[in-house]
Amino acid sequence: MTQANFDEMLLGPDQVRDPYKVYSEWFHSEDLKQLRRKSQDAEAFFRRIGITFNVYGQAEADERLIPFDIVPRIIAAREWARLERGIEQRVRAVNAFLHDIYHRQEILRAGRIPAEIIAGNEAFLPEMIGVNPPGGVYTHIVGVDLVRTGPDEFFVLEDNVRTPSGVSYMLENRETMLQMFPELFTQLNVRPVSAYPQKLRKSLCDTAPEGSPNSKPVLAVLTPGIHNSAYFEHAFLADQMGAELVESADLQVVDGRIAMRTTQGYQPIDVLYRRVDDEYLDPLTFNPDSLLGVPGIMDVYRAGNITLANAPGTGIADDKALYSYMPEIIEFYTGEQAILKNVPTWRCSEPEALSHVLANLKDLVVKEVHGSGGYGMLVGPAASKRELADFEKKLRAKPANYIAQPTLALSTVPILAKEGLAPRHVDLRPFVLVSPNRIDITPGGLTRVALKKGSLVVNSSQGGGTKDTWVLGD
Amino acid sequence: MMLGKTAGGLFWMFRYLERAENTARLLEAGWHMALTRSANGESEWRSIVTTAGMNVAYEERHDEYTSQNVINFLLRDKANPSSVISTIQAARSNARLVRTALSSEVWEATNECWMTLKEALARPITARNLHDILASIRFRTSVVRGALHGTMLRNDIFSFARLGTFIERADNTARILDVKYYVLLPSAAFVGTSVDNAQWEVILRSVSAERSFRWLHAGETSPLGIAEFLILDARMPRSLAFCCGQIGEHLAQLEKEYALRHDSQAQAGRICDRISSCTINSIFQDGLHEFLGEMIRDITCLSGTIEKDFRFYG
To answer: Where in this chain does the record put each Circularly permuted ATP-grasp type domain (chain A) (predicted)?
Structure first.
């Protein structure tokens, strides 16, 4: 399988793909030692500005860096244009689906997806039924996870429509590359990503509720606090947008609005970009033990007096049980075929699919329907006989709990390794902003790379790193 | 518009930075004294810990006041919340909390200060490297201050940062004087002996004022002169008069910016009036120790009022 991998830079030993031609020439004229030194400089730079993530349950010593690789991932204008169309189509369909599923549920009436998938799903919030989010937007921010297997073969792995993270790395990676290799940016027409925070601000404020006492929309970012693993990103985005960074203790309901405690009293907030999960958002409505949310915020929301981004209840659209129905969902709401493919998925709830999965377990990836972050997952080709046997038992006991997918031959992009350039597997998370009349996709995104040779796991907790992603202009 | 939490974070960030710097100064003075062997080591190290207000915690951990123990306790003991490592850590935590209110220069200087000192203080301090470490603490905290002055808007953010600095500094100067007030008293037993000369030197050194004092007083050192310099001389940036003047100015700035007068402004006004109505003779007449005790209490009280007025916590 490894021979069949598509490398995004090299077709053969001396055959460089078009988007990488200029870079390849530049690279081979550079001194390897010098490049390695630059790579170390980059690490020191990240530490100094504090782009770190916290590891849960560990002391201050454990603010870790996500390793950064200095070889960019380069995407041609034509390739990007197609991705952009596909992502936009998908995000549009997701928002239409969310509106429908929390209102008339036409898609269930039409029998295009089974009703029990929604009814028994924890990600479906009955509190959202009949609620109209300000501006009609459910998913203000989306981070679609894509993988690639060939020149034109992109697959959507996950839609990430709850609270996608990682955009600060997209921005800081670019900042770092601009500082280290300014000459490359003069030779190549790399589309900028730096406007993201301003666009985010505008797009959020465009969904501000009506009837606010503020003359201009007041925006705040809600973080669980400085111990959260993504605190850096929360502070970074608030800073870049010129918004307040608030925690639960700063907020309360005042005169039917969410207000923050300032040095001069309580100030109403119009738009809250919350980086707190649905479950913790309101102890009066959801988890009563939550200290991260605001008691009563759901009432304020339902009364239309605050915008929450993303809206509560969007998780139903990126639930794994629903994922396999995305092609139908896209067709139902847009009348078009899906431009971006889904990874073929067997729903183990269906007897035929189950027997196929059981017969081919060693070649498949099996995931829990409601799991996330790679927990409770079986990677067939990497599993021992024992693990396969154990998993088979679980599958037979509760088939509806699982879906299965083939292991994809993920594309590779070179990293700077000891011996020079060496191919490693990557994925891609572009960031999408949705406002009432526009969908904006930042050209680029977060490329995650499995730094270990042969590894397919790009998660930062398991040896993954990041790269800057360059989308070339025409 | 600023969150109450942010105001509190800024205030404490700069209080902690100031405290780290003051501890470094205290140790510098103590070390100098130990080197010149001009006083009883044990009692000198004890009074340094007293000035830092940490006797109880110290005595829980150590039996004797030795240079090695005191230095390590005040610089790198994480169980001591006033040690330099603890205060720098606290300053940086507060900086993370208020990061959106800081310029990137101030944040990076604070983060680098923490990274450098964390590494420098990871191993026990010896006579050999003490000087370098104290210099590094002074240098790193100065870079943060420099970034603050050079890159921050002069608005409420700046005012809260400065209020934290001057509240801490005023408290520190008052404590240094109070711990040593007896060597400044015109009691016959000490006058003219080398002991009190060395003690006066320690006081001046612990506020980095030995040179400026000599320069202003043509080399003539007297206890009255030192007390006057550190309490009433508004040219001296660590004197009570200077610190309280700055506190008053920044509170007045906030009053103007928010168009609202609070209790803290009235309280600061009373402290300033008190200082300007005193002469050094009247202070000695009414009791130096009593005066300093009241100052310390008033400053602590003012700090609490600021916290309430500007809604740091609720």
So the answer is: 72-450
Distance CA A160, CA A145 (A): 7
Strand order in the sheet with A141-143: A141-143, A431-435, A438-441
HSE of A305 in the Cβ direction (CA atoms, 13 Å)? 16
The model's pLDDT over A453-469, given as tens digits with 9 standing for 90+, comes to 988 888 877 778 999 99
CA distance B308 to chain A (A): 10
Sort B217 into a burial class: Cβ within 10 Å, 0-12 / 13-18 / 19+: middle
Q: What six digits make up the tokens of A396?
A: 């037979």
Chain A residues with CB inside 8 Å of B311's CB?
261-263, 265
Helix (H) or strand (E) holding B248: helix B240-258
Round to whole Å and give the CA distance between A366 and A385.
15
pLDDT tens sequence across B260-303: 999 999 999 999 999 999 999 999 999 999 999 999 999 999 99
- Residue A1: the pLDDT is 39
β-strand partners of A265: A262
Q: Distance (Å, rounded) from C-alpha A207 to C-alpha A373? A: 30
User: Structural domains in chain A?
Assistant: 2-209+306-341+409-471 (no CATH), 210-305 (3.40.50.11290), 349-406 (3.30.1490.270)
Tokens 């015109």, located at residue:
B186
CB proximity A122 to B under 8 Å: no
**pLDDT value of residue B23:** 95
This prediction has a pTM of 0.90
The token duo for B1 is 């518009």
Residues B213 and B180: their CA atoms lie apart, in Å, by: 18
What three-state secondary structure class fits A446? strand
For residue A48, the distance in angstroms to the closest alpha carbon of chain B comes to 6
Please say whether the beta carbons of B139 and B20 come within 8 A. Answer: no
- Torsion angles phi and psi, residue B290, rounded to 5: -65, -45
Q: How many C-beta atoms surround the C-beta of residue A33 within 10 A?
A: 8
Q: Is B37 left (phi over 0), alpha (psi -120 to 50) or beta?
A: left
Out of A50, A239, A262, whose CB is closest to B3? A262
Query: What gap in Å lies between CA A203 and CA A206, rounded to an integer?
Result: 5
Is the model's pLDDT at A49 over the cut of 90? Answer: no
Phi, psi of B16 (to 5 degrees): -65, -40
pLDDT of residue A429: 97
Chain B residues within 8 angstroms (CB to CB) of chain A: 1-7, 89, 93, 96-97, 99-100, 104, 107-108, 111-112, 115, 156, 258, 260, 310-311, 314
Chain A residue nearest residue B103, CA to CA: A239
Identify all chain A residues contacting B96, using CB atoms and an 8 Å cutoff: 50, 226, 231, 235
Under DSSP, the state recorded for A314 is: G
What is the per-residue pLDDT for B41? 76
Q: Reduced to 3 states, what is the DSSP secondary structure of residue A460?
A: helix
CA dihedral sign of residues A343, A344, A350, A351: negative
User: Token pair for residue A346?
Assistant: 């067997």
| Cβ–Cβ under 8 Å, residues A64 and A53 | yes
Say yes or no for a CB contact (<8 Å) between B99 and A246.
no
What is the separation of C-alpha A136 from the centre of its chain, rounded to a whole number of angstroms? 21
DSSP 8-class letter at B190: T
Beta bridge partners of A266: A261
Instruction: Identify whether A189 is preceded by a cis peptide bond (ω within 30 of 0).
Output: no
pLDDT of residue A377: 82
User: Residue A390: what residue type?
Assistant: D
Q: Helix axis angle, B240-258 relative to B156-179, nearest 10°?
A: 160
Give the residue among A321, A372, A285 at the shortest CA–CA distance from A120.
Answer: A321
- How far from chain centre, in Å, is Cα B212? 18
